[in-house]
């Protein structure tokens, strides 16, 4: 199952993302791809929602993959030490 | 036109642009402690960077750090049922953009901040909260947090050119 997220994910909107992911989980969908290509802003609450969804998926024997991260999000996950948690390859440093 | 509003419940945001003694732009914004005002707080940071002194990456990092501080402020107000405004002051000079976020949400105990397990630790997945402070620390060039029983003030600075490592 693929979930496409668009717009700003912050304290105001992340509860909606959480509900959608919890709903999928409760319907037995434990292999989820979350496409973040349309995300313009993602804060700690949005990352927390993704961490929770990853935990629930793995506990059910599934997996959650993040797709289409912008370079900024790539860097943010790496900075927080979460790249490895989500199985994201380290960002390529082009800032020579 | 005389819709009565409760003195306790701020309605809408108040925006005050000015210049300081050096002629640098200062933008002040007061917002109700509501989640739907976070996007406006981020726009304030973009607005004070009108001369594009911060490059796009450093601007988006500062917007995220400011948004995290405002998120904590709103959460503190929600937790304590405080309806007073949250004040955000953004000032741009040639060398730096400085943002101060002041809330009246009753403060917090920094020693109670969550210590997150290492990323390799499977228990890391048990923590969905507690990332905000780490994001602020990682992204801002300078960060100061003053918290009392009345509220918290967070001051963060982003230099216009990256500090040498």
Descriptive report:
Chain A has 96 residues and is of the alpha/beta class. Helices cover 40% and strands 26% of the residues of chain A. Chain A is built from three helices and three strands; from the N terminus they run βαβαβα. The mean pLDDT of chain A is 91. By secondary structure, chain B is of the alpha+beta class. Chain B contains three helices and six strands, in the order ββααββαββ. Chain B is globular, with a radius of gyration of 17 Å. The termini of chain B are far apart. The chains are: A alpha/beta (96), B alpha+beta (165). The A-B interface holds A 8, 10-12, 41, 43-45, 47-49, 51-52, 54-55, 58, 72, 76, 79-85 and B 35-36, 38-39, 42, 57, 60, 63-64, 67-68, 71, 74-75, 118-120, 124-129, 131-132, 134-135, 138-139.
Number of strands of chain A: 3
Based on helices, strands and strand pairing, what is the structural class of chain A?
Answer: alpha/beta
Percent range for helical residues of chain B? 25-40%
Q: Would you list the SSEs of chain B in sequence order as H and E? A: EEHHEEHEE
As a whole number of angstroms, the C-alpha radius of gyration of chain B is 17 Å
Strand content of chain A: 25-35%
Largest interchain contact: A-B, 25 and 29 residues
Q: What Rg of chain A, in angstroms, do the CA atoms define?
A: 13 Å
What pattern of helices and strands is seen along the backbone of chain A? Answer: EHEHEH
